[in-house]
Amino acid sequence: MRLDYLTIFPDYLAPLELSLPGRAVASGLLDLQVHDLRRWTHDRHRTVDDTPYGGGAGMVMRPEPWGEAFDDLGIEGATVVVPTPSGRPLTQALARELAARERLVFCCGRYEGIDQRVVEHAASRTEVLEVSLGDYVLNGGEAAALVVTEAVVRLLPGFMGNAASLVEESHEAGLLEYPGYTKPATWRGLEVPPVLLSGDHGRIAAWRHEQALTRTAERRPDLLHASAAPGEWAIEPAT
Ligand code: 6GU
Protein backbone atom coordinates (compact mmCIF):
# COMPACT_ATOMS: atom_id res chain seq x y z
CA MET A 1 0.00 0.00 0.00
CA ARG A 2 1.18 3.51 -0.78
CA LEU A 3 0.45 6.35 1.63
CA ASP A 4 1.06 10.05 0.85
CA TYR A 5 0.61 12.88 3.33
CA LEU A 6 0.22 16.53 2.35
CA THR A 7 0.82 18.83 5.30
CA ILE A 8 2.37 22.13 6.34
CA PHE A 9 3.70 20.32 9.45
CA PRO A 10 5.72 17.38 8.09
CA ASP A 11 7.46 16.93 11.48
CA TYR A 12 4.07 16.20 13.04
CA LEU A 13 3.94 13.02 10.97
CA ALA A 14 7.42 11.81 11.99
CA PRO A 15 5.90 9.15 14.31
CA LEU A 16 4.86 7.30 11.16
CA GLU A 17 8.49 6.33 10.65
CA LEU A 18 8.76 4.94 14.19
CA SER A 19 5.97 2.82 15.62
CA LEU A 20 3.69 0.37 13.85
CA PRO A 21 3.73 1.75 10.31
CA GLY A 22 7.51 2.10 10.56
CA ARG A 23 7.81 -1.66 10.83
CA ALA A 24 5.57 -2.12 7.80
CA VAL A 25 7.75 0.29 5.81
CA ALA A 26 10.87 -1.65 6.78
CA SER A 27 9.22 -4.90 5.69
CA GLY A 28 8.28 -3.42 2.29
CA LEU A 29 4.53 -3.64 2.97
CA LEU A 30 4.17 0.15 2.94
CA ASP A 31 5.53 2.96 0.79
CA LEU A 32 5.04 6.04 2.94
CA GLN A 33 5.80 9.61 1.84
CA VAL A 34 5.31 12.87 3.74
CA HIS A 35 5.19 16.02 1.61
CA ASP A 36 5.51 19.64 2.74
CA LEU A 37 2.63 21.46 1.06
CA ARG A 38 4.73 24.65 0.95
CA ARG A 39 6.84 22.99 -1.72
CA TRP A 40 3.97 23.93 -4.05
CA THR A 41 3.92 27.64 -3.12
CA HIS A 42 5.74 30.27 -5.19
CA ASP A 43 5.64 33.51 -3.18
CA ARG A 44 8.34 34.83 -0.81
CA HIS A 45 6.31 33.91 2.27
CA ARG A 46 5.21 30.50 1.00
CA THR A 47 1.58 31.42 1.70
CA VAL A 48 -0.91 28.58 2.06
CA ASP A 49 -3.94 30.33 3.56
CA ASP A 50 -6.02 33.48 3.25
CA THR A 51 -9.05 35.22 4.73
CA PRO A 52 -12.44 33.61 4.08
CA TYR A 53 -14.72 34.98 1.36
CA GLY A 54 -17.89 36.18 3.04
CA GLY A 55 -15.99 37.16 6.16
CA GLY A 56 -15.66 35.48 9.53
CA ALA A 57 -12.90 34.34 11.84
CA GLY A 58 -9.85 32.28 10.97
CA MET A 59 -8.15 31.47 7.73
CA VAL A 60 -8.94 29.08 4.91
CA MET A 61 -6.32 27.19 2.95
CA ARG A 62 -5.95 28.42 -0.63
CA PRO A 63 -6.58 25.85 -3.32
CA GLU A 64 -3.57 26.37 -5.62
CA PRO A 65 -0.85 24.49 -3.67
CA TRP A 66 -3.20 21.50 -3.29
CA GLY A 67 -3.95 21.46 -7.01
CA GLU A 68 -0.27 21.56 -7.93
CA ALA A 69 0.53 18.84 -5.39
CA PHE A 70 -2.21 16.65 -6.90
CA ASP A 71 -0.75 17.25 -10.38
CA ASP A 72 2.82 16.41 -9.31
CA LEU A 73 1.97 13.36 -7.19
CA GLY A 74 -0.82 12.15 -9.46
CA ILE A 75 -3.94 11.22 -7.54
CA GLU A 76 -5.76 9.21 -10.22
CA GLY A 77 -6.64 5.79 -8.87
CA ALA A 78 -5.85 6.80 -5.28
CA THR A 79 -8.36 7.49 -2.53
CA VAL A 80 -7.94 11.05 -1.28
CA VAL A 81 -8.64 11.20 2.47
CA VAL A 82 -9.47 14.62 3.92
CA PRO A 83 -9.63 14.70 7.73
CA THR A 84 -12.32 17.13 8.82
CA PRO A 85 -14.82 17.31 11.69
CA SER A 86 -17.58 17.46 9.06
CA GLY A 87 -16.55 14.17 7.48
CA ARG A 88 -17.83 10.60 7.67
CA PRO A 89 -17.19 9.18 11.15
CA LEU A 90 -14.23 6.80 11.28
CA THR A 91 -15.41 3.31 12.21
CA GLN A 92 -13.83 -0.11 12.01
CA ALA A 93 -15.94 -0.70 8.88
CA LEU A 94 -14.47 2.41 7.23
CA ALA A 95 -10.95 1.39 8.29
CA ARG A 96 -11.56 -1.96 6.57
CA GLU A 97 -12.77 -0.19 3.42
CA LEU A 98 -9.65 1.97 3.36
CA ALA A 99 -7.37 -1.02 4.01
CA ALA A 100 -8.62 -2.48 0.71
CA ARG A 101 -7.35 0.53 -1.29
CA GLU A 102 -4.03 0.49 -3.12
CA ARG A 103 -3.15 4.07 -2.29
CA LEU A 104 -4.33 6.75 0.13
CA VAL A 105 -3.46 10.45 -0.15
CA PHE A 106 -4.06 12.29 3.13
CA CYS A 107 -4.75 16.02 2.85
CA CYS A 108 -4.09 17.58 6.26
CA GLY A 109 -5.58 21.03 6.55
CA ARG A 110 -6.09 23.40 9.42
CA TYR A 111 -9.44 23.07 11.14
CA GLU A 112 -10.99 26.18 9.63
CA GLY A 113 -10.56 24.13 6.53
CA ILE A 114 -9.38 23.93 2.98
CA ASP A 115 -11.14 25.80 0.18
CA GLN A 116 -14.01 23.41 -0.65
CA ARG A 117 -13.10 23.48 -4.35
CA VAL A 118 -10.07 21.31 -3.51
CA VAL A 119 -12.39 18.44 -2.54
CA GLU A 120 -14.63 19.13 -5.52
CA HIS A 121 -11.65 19.13 -7.89
CA ALA A 122 -10.08 15.99 -6.42
CA ALA A 123 -13.47 14.24 -6.67
CA SER A 124 -13.52 14.99 -10.40
CA ARG A 125 -10.27 13.00 -10.69
CA THR A 126 -10.62 10.18 -8.16
CA GLU A 127 -12.42 8.91 -5.06
CA VAL A 128 -12.46 11.39 -2.16
CA LEU A 129 -13.44 10.68 1.42
CA GLU A 130 -13.86 13.37 4.08
CA VAL A 131 -13.32 11.58 7.40
CA SER A 132 -13.97 12.67 11.00
CA LEU A 133 -12.65 11.11 14.19
CA GLY A 134 -15.65 12.22 16.23
CA ASP A 135 -17.61 15.15 17.53
CA TYR A 136 -14.83 17.38 18.76
CA VAL A 137 -12.45 19.78 17.05
CA LEU A 138 -8.73 19.34 16.45
CA ASN A 139 -6.49 22.14 15.24
CA GLY A 140 -5.49 20.36 12.08
CA GLY A 141 -5.78 17.10 10.19
CA GLU A 142 -2.36 15.66 11.11
CA ALA A 143 -3.31 13.88 14.34
CA ALA A 144 -6.39 12.50 12.58
CA ALA A 145 -4.28 11.24 9.68
CA LEU A 146 -2.07 9.39 12.18
CA VAL A 147 -5.12 7.78 13.76
CA VAL A 148 -6.63 6.73 10.41
CA THR A 149 -3.25 5.35 9.34
CA GLU A 150 -2.86 3.20 12.44
CA ALA A 151 -6.43 1.88 12.17
CA VAL A 152 -5.90 0.99 8.49
CA VAL A 153 -2.33 -0.31 8.42
CA ARG A 154 -2.82 -2.89 11.16
CA LEU A 155 -5.53 -4.49 8.99
CA LEU A 156 -3.20 -5.10 6.05
CA PRO A 157 -2.55 -8.79 5.43
CA GLY A 158 0.89 -9.67 6.76
CA PHE A 159 1.07 -6.68 9.07
CA MET A 160 0.01 -8.11 12.44
CA GLY A 161 1.76 -11.10 13.93
CA ASN A 162 -1.46 -12.62 15.22
CA ALA A 163 -4.39 -12.51 12.78
CA ALA A 164 -6.78 -14.10 15.32
CA SER A 165 -6.47 -11.11 17.65
CA LEU A 166 -7.89 -8.99 14.82
CA VAL A 167 -11.06 -11.04 14.50
CA GLU A 168 -11.89 -11.27 18.18
CA GLU A 169 -11.22 -7.75 19.29
CA SER A 170 -13.47 -4.79 20.06
CA HIS A 171 -15.69 -3.55 17.28
CA GLU A 172 -14.88 -6.31 14.82
CA ALA A 173 -17.81 -8.16 16.41
CA GLY A 174 -19.78 -4.94 16.88
CA LEU A 175 -19.33 -5.22 20.65
CA LEU A 176 -16.80 -3.88 23.13
CA GLU A 177 -14.12 -6.37 24.07
CA TYR A 178 -14.38 -8.60 27.13
CA PRO A 179 -11.89 -7.85 29.96
CA GLY A 180 -8.51 -9.59 29.86
CA TYR A 181 -6.51 -11.16 32.71
CA THR A 182 -3.08 -12.72 33.03
CA LYS A 183 -0.81 -14.01 35.82
CA PRO A 184 -0.69 -13.89 38.78
CA ALA A 185 -4.09 -15.44 39.61
CA THR A 186 -4.20 -13.31 42.79
CA TRP A 187 -2.80 -9.79 42.84
CA ARG A 188 -3.14 -7.35 45.74
CA GLY A 189 -6.15 -9.30 46.97
CA LEU A 190 -7.86 -9.26 43.56
CA GLU A 191 -8.78 -12.60 41.96
CA VAL A 192 -8.98 -13.51 38.30
CA PRO A 193 -12.57 -14.64 37.54
CA PRO A 194 -12.49 -18.38 38.41
CA VAL A 195 -14.18 -19.46 35.13
CA LEU A 196 -11.01 -18.43 33.27
CA LEU A 197 -9.01 -20.97 35.31
CA SER A 198 -11.59 -23.75 34.78
CA GLY A 199 -10.19 -25.09 31.52
CA ASP A 200 -13.79 -25.32 30.22
CA HIS A 201 -13.51 -23.53 26.86
CA GLY A 202 -17.27 -23.55 26.25
CA ARG A 203 -17.99 -21.84 29.57
CA ILE A 204 -15.10 -19.42 29.00
CA ALA A 205 -16.43 -18.40 25.58
CA ALA A 206 -19.96 -17.96 26.99
CA TRP A 207 -18.66 -15.86 29.91
CA ARG A 208 -16.61 -13.65 27.61
CA HIS A 209 -19.56 -13.08 25.29
CA GLU A 210 -21.79 -12.16 28.23
CA GLN A 211 -19.11 -9.76 29.52
CA ALA A 212 -18.88 -8.13 26.08
CA LEU A 213 -22.68 -7.74 25.94
CA THR A 214 -22.94 -6.33 29.48
CA ARG A 215 -20.11 -3.87 28.91
CA THR A 216 -21.56 -2.74 25.61
CA ALA A 217 -25.04 -2.27 27.11
CA GLU A 218 -23.57 -0.24 29.99
CA ARG A 219 -20.98 1.82 28.16
CA ARG A 220 -22.11 2.00 24.53
CA PRO A 221 -25.79 1.08 24.19
CA ASP A 222 -25.76 2.84 20.81
CA LEU A 223 -23.63 0.00 19.42
CA LEU A 224 -26.35 -2.56 20.14
CA HIS A 225 -28.72 -0.75 17.79
CA ALA A 226 -26.12 0.35 15.24
CA SER A 227 -26.78 -0.33 11.58
CA ALA A 228 -24.16 0.38 8.94
CA ALA A 229 -25.19 3.25 6.67
CA PRO A 230 -22.41 3.46 4.10
CA GLY A 231 -22.58 4.91 0.62
CA GLU A 232 -23.90 8.38 1.19
CA TRP A 233 -20.51 9.62 2.41
CA ALA A 234 -18.42 8.44 -0.51
CA ILE A 235 -17.64 11.06 -3.12
CA GLU A 236 -17.02 9.12 -6.31
CA PRO A 237 -14.98 10.36 -9.24
CA ALA A 238 -17.01 12.13 -11.96
CA THR A 239 -16.44 9.51 -14.66
CL1 6GU B 1 -10.60 14.34 11.07
N1 6GU B 1 -10.01 16.80 11.79
C1 6GU B 1 -10.09 17.84 12.61
N2 6GU B 1 -9.42 18.94 12.29
N3 6GU B 1 -10.82 17.86 13.70
C2 6GU B 1 -11.46 16.74 13.99
C3 6GU B 1 -11.42 15.60 13.20
C4 6GU B 1 -10.68 15.68 12.08
N4 6GU B 1 -12.19 14.66 13.75
C5 6GU B 1 -12.68 15.19 14.84
N5 6GU B 1 -12.25 16.45 15.01
Describe the structure in your own words.
This protein is of the alpha/beta class and 239 residues long. It has helices at residues 20-26, 63-73, 92-99, 117-123, 142-153, 164-168, 201-219, 221-224; strands at residues 2-7, 31-36, 49-50, 60-61, 79-89, 103-107, 127-132, 186-187, 190-191. A hairpin with a 2-residue loop joins strand 8 (186-187) and strand 9 (190-191). It is elongated. The model has no long low-confidence stretch (mean pLDDT 91). Bound molecules: 6-chloroguanine (6GU).
Distance between the ends: 24 Å
Rg result: 22 Å
Give the integer mean of the pLDDT values: 91
- Describe the sheet with the most strands: 5 strands, parallel
Number of helices: 8
Bound small-molecule species: 6-chloroguanine
Number of strands: 9
The run of helices and strands is EHEEEHEHEHEHHEEHH
Q: What secondary-structure arrangement, pairings included, does this model have?
A:
Layout: E1 2-7, H1 20-26, E2 31-36, E3 49-50, E4 60-61, H2 63-73, E5 79-89, H3 92-99, E6 103-107, H4 117-123, E7 127-132, H5 142-153, H6 164-168, E8 186-187, E9 190-191, H7 201-219, H8 221-224
Parallel strand pairs: 1-2, 1-6, 5-6, 5-7
Antiparallel strand pairs: 3-4, 8-9
Helix pairs in contact: 2-4, 3-5
The structure holds 6-chloroguanine.
Family: Belongs to the RNA methyltransferase TrmD family.
Binding site for S-adenosyl-L-methionine: 109, 133-138
Subcellular location: Cytoplasm
